[in-house]
Fold each of these.
Amino acid sequence: MPTMRRWIPLLPVLAGCTRVVSLEVDSGPTRLVVEGRIELRPGDGGGRQTILLTTTDRFDAIGPLPPATGATVVVQDDQGRQFVFSPSPIAGNPAYITTGLTPRVGGRYLLTIDYQGERYRAEHQLLAPPPLDSLYFRYEDAGLAQGDSGFRAVIDYTDPAGVKNYYLWELLVDGERRIAVDPGNRFRIISDDRFYDGGEVKGYQPYDEEVVEPGQVVTIRQLALSEAGFRYHFVLFEQTTGGGGPFSTPPTSVRGNVVNLTDPARYPLGFFFATQVAERSAVVPAR
Amino acid sequence: MCSLGSFLRGSAVLLGIASTPVAAQPVIRLSGYVRSSASGEVIRYARISADGQPSVAESNQDGFFVLALPPGSHQIRIRAVGFAPKVEQVTLTASVIRDFLLDPRPLQLEEITVAGRRDTSDVDPASAEMSTARLEMTTVRLVPVVLGEVDPIRALTLLPGVTTISDYSTGFSVRGGTTDQNLILLDESTIYNPAHVFGFFSVFNGDAIDDVKLYKGAIPARYGGRLSSVLDVRQREGNAKRFEGGATIGLLASRMSLEGPLPDRIGSYLVAARRTYADLFLKLSSDPDLNQNVAYFYDVNAKTNVRLGASGAVMVSGYFGRDRFKVAERFAASWGNQAGTLRWNQAFGSRLFSKLTATVSDYDYGLEFLGIGRDLSWTARIGGYDLKLDQTYHVANGNRIEFGGALTRHNIRPGSIRPVGDSPVRPLDLQPRYGLAPALHASHEIELGPAVSLRYGVRYAGFRRLGAGTIYRYAGGPLRYDASLGRYQKNPVADSTEYRPGETIVSRFGLEPRLSLRVGLAKTASLKAGYSRTRQFLHLVSNTNSPTPVDIWEPIGRYLEPQLSDQLALGFAKTWDDERYEFSAEAYYKRLANVTDFIDGADIALNDRLETEMLQGTGRSYGLELYARKRAGRLTGWVSYTLGRAERRLRGIAPDDPGINGGRYYPSPYDKTHDLSVVGFHPLSRTWTVAGTFVAASGLPATFPESRYRYNGLLVVEYGPRNAARLPTYHRLDLTFTRTTNRSQWQFGLFNLYNRFNAQSIAFQQVENNPLALEAVQTSIFGIVPSVSFSFAF
């Protein structure tokens, strides 16, 4: 009997791959989706605030999501002031808009939506992020981990010591929001200071997949999240990057903080929060 | 020979009431080790009988047997797979301990099948054992495998009740259980994560492994600590007769092994090592994207055995393996197992076989996240020490008692964060978890006449969670259900208790009865029944669809209760035509308590208070396993079919909570309704053999979307109930052509011959260049994979 064996695989071919498949799935109930935010912006006197209301749609539908029209949207603050949001005059635009709502740090904001005979509610306190210390650009060569060659937006910020901070960053390029589906989103676009409380963070790239071109105006907005808001966005980014993949977390509904008071079982989706905005803009230099 | 008397005698010894057996007639015990004449290595599960005597002894996992005979001259017959049967004349005047040597014979299919005893003793109508799965390495080496890498775990999944969880994973599910419910022992030392390269390869190097046995139910009382199964893997001892060694360089990996006798022939040693080095080719690349990347694994197996005369041996065995993985200067990961065993086997007189075993084992991993402005490393480990005493007392032929005890110390470091370079990250250490797990066991195996045999026993096992540690108390428990938000929320910490080092935090103990019974219907058929209760004190906390290197083990605590399983199995086994054909059927029912699952959106990474993320509930699984094998003739092989169901139910905390899935039963992650394997071997000529495997199984449970919406610029999927849908049916055909000559073997393999696009998962995500559409993306691991391998022995 051979007591020792040597195996020499000479021709291994790995043919693993992915393929888009079509699936018959049963459609669930249509739900209201709330993308609500009250912002305190630097030097903003107008107090313009926007809340987006849409509904869910068939999984295999293509195109924009149906706007939730005919809703009554009201935000009340903890000083008894009430702000009514009006639907956007542009047909098909899901925005409800108000002006004159200049919030304050620490203020509490109560959102009430009446839509198709049901009342929805959410509440959030306005939190303040620390200032954004600087915004600059770094040229990265293409690589497995970095994507394409080009400039990336880089920020420095200082985390306040002794308090819990949760961050959300937004990237605007020539005024346009940019966000891509990426498994790294939940580790970069949002952050929890538990590992670096009070630390000076230097050279951070919240959007390291996004290449910006010389001459473009780039804005990074630094927002504050509550713990619930951080958790919501963490699950959101986790679930939007291939939920159901081999090593991903199991698929799950992303549940926010808006409640259906009339019929809790017909829960809405989305999140409502209030934040001060720290932001910086800069022009991408030539290489 | 009867048997009520010896039954009572055995029971009395077991209970400690009688110490002087009453001998009816003079009995002499022939005992010793069965060994290979070529290498001196022990032979497990050899059968020893004497002409004209009804009893048959079997060598145990250390190759030792005891056979009681009347004084006088006997023809002793010994048979074992892969060895020529031996008949030896022995004249007994007094009890004796001696070696019996068998001559190996060249590997030929028909001989394996005819001469050997069965691979799986649960189909043996003469044995009370049931619910086990065992394959000889000779069979394992012929079964087609992907990339020609011999893997005993994958071969076992072709037997009933054992299923793979995916093409890329060495993780396996036994009767619907989860992967962490399998106790994996390498020379009795625990292996916490049996995977290399995220699971493509198992840690078991085919050169170093001698024997693999899986207990799916009716688990003997000497094993405990996991709910579903015990996988007992033994390393080879090495050639005690002559030195052998060599090294091989292949395309993917190089291997080296050395074995031989120790000085003065006092024993033997074996060292086997392997390393993949695809990454060395990456380094040759001029492309900086490639040459900065690292991906390899290596492992080392070592074992040495020192004989203490004819009756004892001391064995030292070790395993060390490591995977390293690095993507440029951005991300690095490294993980590995270490295991060591020191064991002393000794026969005292010719009745008592004693084993004293000390093991140490450890699994650790480290991750580095770099170039992000707050660079950090993350490390974690689980390990422990184990001291075990196992005794086997031979009362009479077909009547023996096993008893012993074990003491295990668990040390878990669930996570540490450290800054790397100039980083604002502050060091953080999650609280270590400590535990002490004592166990006592005793069992009695007895033949009550030729038709009935019984094995009954009990294990008394416990776990003491020890300090130092801080345990939190929450107002109203760790979790509450917020009906208005429709989800579980963690409750605020009310206060905490500090425990001093060594102080008991919680302690849970319980009895675990084990029973198996055989009733012979005829010489070649029997009915079997088995029952076992098992407890598990460590929970693998993994919130991914597959096991990953980043495992977190959480012991029981104030909020986490031990998992408990009660399993009942009924079986039928029959052989025909002088054991050329065999058939077995087994039905099982398992009831589980305190199984865990996570609340929707759980956050488990580096979480010191996992109790706020998980729920415990009940589970059940049941099924029917059918197995038919043809052992002789030109065509040999087997058909295995399992019809099964595995479900969980998590009801939540308060009576009106929805729990998970509305508090209703839902399929466990590894529930497979149908699972069919067909394996065949057919010689084509004197040197050529073809082996084929066909596998077909229900798709695994999956969670499918019910609608989509948009938030924060991203399309989001709203999912339906958990695990309510299924992946498409899995099926695959593999072929291997093997050319065997005296010293060498060529193997040509075709894995997934008709290139079936089997779904490992279906993910739902936004179309890359269209933020207004979603797509379902199915991942398949292996299409058709040809492979060629060459092996030689010297």
Amino acid sequence: MKQILHIFVKDARHQWLEIVISLAVTLALVFTCHSRWHAEAMYGGVVSFSPLGLVSNLPAFLVVIVPLSWWLLISPLVHEERLVGDRQFWITRPYEWKKLLAAKVLFLIVFLYVPLLLAQGVMLAEAGFTPFPSFRGLLYDAFQLTCILVLPLVALATVTRNFARMTLAVLGAIVCLIASVLLASNAPPDRVAISHGGEIALYVVLCLLLSVVILQYARRNVKVSWILLALLVVLFGAFNMGGTPDNAQMVRKYPPGQKIVAAAQFAYEEKEGTGPSAFVTQKRDWVGISIPVLVSGVPDRTVTIPDFLKVTLQTQGGARWTSVWQSISMNKFFPGERVDNAQFIMPRAVYEDFKGKPLNVQVSFALTQAHAGNQERLTLGQDDFAVSEVGICSPITGFSDRLLGEIGGVVCRAPLRQPELTLVSSAWSTSSCRGASSSPDGSVQTAAWIGSLESEPADLGIVPVAISAVNFTNQFLTESNRQGKVRHLCPGSPVTFIEYTLTSRSQVTFWINGFQLPLLDSGQLTVIDHD
Amino acid sequence: MKLAIRTEKLSRRFGKTVAVDRVDLAVPEGAIYALVGANGAGKTTIIKMLMNIFRPSAGHAEVLGVDAVRLAGKAFTRIGYVSENQELPEWMTTGAMLSYFRSFYPEWDPALEEQLVRQFDLPLNRKLKHLSRGMRMKAAFASSLAYRPSLIVLDEPFSGLDPLVRDELIEGLLERAPETTIFLSSHDLAEIESFSSHIGFLEQGRLLFSEELPTLSERFREVTVTLQHPSTLPENCPASWLLPEAADCVVRFVHSNYKQQATERELVEIFPSARNVSLDPMPLRSIFLAIAKSGRNHIEPAANDARRIKA
């Protein structure tokens, strides 16, 4: 312990300037972050070039500067007893590598993690949240930052001689990342992120980077360490290329036959005007097919969310094509009947081959079902309001909104992560809020989803406050029912928050017999937006 | 005899280049062992393998009874290492560096530290990066001697230093000699000769010989044979003759295995008509040059000769 403290004190004395810079940047972020939330509430996050707009943009700038200040902190910390070369003073002194490494870790804890934790605590308090219940989430965030930022910087410092070389290595790493992203953009479009890929990638990154750091401190084996880092880049590229969740993975995550989920009925619905259609995708050798699906039987107080779709096409002659599990973007289904289009893509060659033939189609959906929990009904005013399980919400009351006596929208902030999946509903007023009627007419219902069902305790980020903009539907009138130009959200409007919690996941399958692939709309380019 | 350093067939390759080739070393405790050789002979590589800075490609080395590849941490409390191109924590002052190193060594002697600071006239308040090369070397020496190491390893310690600094360092080193083993590499033979007890000669990664300095000096003679008539070199010169040359009536060579009676007999047999034979002792520098030159002209034979000489 004595040696650890001795090295720690030496490093702290040597790096006082870097420590001061890092602390100053972190402090600046703490002092300015509230201006961002203020701007969110004023302008819904649109940054103007007014002084307030620029100040409100400062946190976004500082969020980039903080990791750069860590870079300035980590490079001299590791290079002080550098691990590359054969002339360093310390390698023939009674340094014990475990103690040396422990001293460096202690330095990072004291001058990087503790200030970050304190700063995040203060930011949470400034956002209106009590920091202590979020401690576990803050630790999880620190873990994520370690894997994504700190450990890569430490690992690159251990395999380089000095700051300049480390800078080159960091730039090289960035080039590799960009290259892998560009390569990934050429991947087949039916590929999606591997199920749980992010989590696996995080642990793989952690293991490989830890191996590099430990190997360097224990053996100073630069060649092997670089090979491990190269392997990391290759793996990152592979993860970026995505993949397709295989059946075993899907069965594990979406076990078929779950009763509650299976209660939802999915069926092919072909009526006049709602038939299937085909379209050209961005990749011209792939064709998109859209089929109308009637969803019914969703249990009471639940919502059913289709996540993935898998299709098998079979001709009378026995020819067969099965898609991979493709991610889909459909509406969320409530109790009652509703028709929505399910879209999948298939290779153009297969499409041409199967076109015009009667097909038996097996359609499987991987579904998530969530149950309505807490419900909170509030009245919109001009001030912030707290919503349990969501956080603190602010009505957007920018200059023009104030002038018109309206509310431009709602922005909610939550500690550490997006809130649980929440349905926010309200009512539009068809007349201006300063109109004859002082109370909103509430004639048109509106709703929006915020949050997610993911269960990580914290989103990755230096600022521990997640912002969710509530994007209400139906604000603009369509041509067919034009009565005015836009609908209005007025003070005094009711707003309801219903929290949904994950119930279960499952698969449902239905068949379409005698289906014919629709003709392609030539020249029509449709972009499938998978989110 | 207890050995401070022992190597067996120690070898190191860098790609296709063999830097050190099957070197067997035995450095007795208490010795001042000088490893000499031309630039690029492999001296620094051997020292770096001994200090576990490089890993051997083959062979084995032991330092103070510890396998060199396991040399780390506490083992260095008994070893002092100074190298001409060693990096020091240059942002520290001399005093801060000594103070920093102090706590790493349980045997650190503050009185000795003070004495070394006085002896080397070290400016304690100046940063190392602002010191001259000589002063930095002195600071490195002070930080490596103050804990009374059992073994001091020096890699070209006097290279590029002015004579005054060199003498100061040698003086400081020799004061520690009775209680330690000193292993140093150098190509400055004049200074080595003045205080070394043992010497090893390295040529292109191979150890040509390793022996006590007096024995070595005794073994080498510069031989000048004056003949009655102009003559050429005899056929089949013995392998122990280095750089033989003949000019008019004079034959000159370096005898690398001189033994008074046997050599005189040998010379009488080969040069029965010799008018005069002179056998002059050689300074270490001349021995080194003779071996180096004969090695460059005939590397293989010279190496073989040397092995024979060793045997």
